[in-house]
């Protein structure tokens, strides 16, 4: 498995291209902006996109989607159904996607030999998901290095804490690829992330 991180847009969103190196088939996670950078990487490496996965519907994770789809033959786009329950800007343009599919807890999608598994992790948004593939965790705007996604723009802090608690309880360790900023590991976040520790009741209520 080859993971390419492309930092796109003014908010510096992490778009990921995950490739099965044997087949050159790939999945794109969160094409937020700079479609040319995403498409050039795919073309330069002779990759065949098979799906786009959206961790949540905010504009900075989805705005390059129309251009990417136009140049990749309209591959299926996966998102949680709750992300379309608002009338916001992102929901509006996502509804226009020709092959929009809804994934939910426990769903598995195969790209080449890679299996992507969906975990529902609401908090930042109602339908936010985390995607696992092997020992990689694509956490969207749920878990960050040393932090978590904000909940003051329509999110829910109680749901966020539940999601962080759930991620930290997963067996083993994962390389965490968040929606913004640098990668980390789940074990590191278990030890040092205030919000993860708070979710696990390591701190008294303030």
3D structure, described in words:
The chain is 23% helix and 31% strand. The chain has helices spanning 35-44, 65-71, 89-94, 157-168, 186-192, 194-199; strands at 2-8, 13-20, 25-29, 48-53, 77-79, 100-102, 108-111, 114-120, 129-133, 136-140, 143-144, 147-148, 175-178, 184-185. Strands 1-2-3-4-5-6 form a six-stranded mixed beta sheet, covered by helices on one side. Strands 7-8-9-10-13-14 form a six-stranded mixed beta sheet. The chain is globular, with a radius of gyration of 16 Å. The model has no long low-confidence stretch (mean pLDDT 93).
Q: Name the helix and strand elements from N-terminus to C-terminus, one letter apiece.
A: EEEHEHEHEEEEEEEHEEHH
Supply the CATH superfamily name. Ribonuclease Z/Hydroxyacylglutathione hydrolase-like
> Unreliable runs, pLDDT <50, ≥5 residues?
none
Structural class of the secondary structure composition? alpha/beta
As for the CATH topology, it is Metallo-beta-lactamase, Chain A
- Spatial order of the strands forming the largest sheet: 1-2-3-4-5-6
Report the top-level CATH class.
Alpha Beta
Strand % is 25-35%
CATH arch. level architecture: 4-Layer Sandwich
What is the 3D form? globular
Strands, count: 14
Helix content estimate? 10-25%
Query: For the terminal residues, how far apart are their CA atoms?
Result: 43 Å
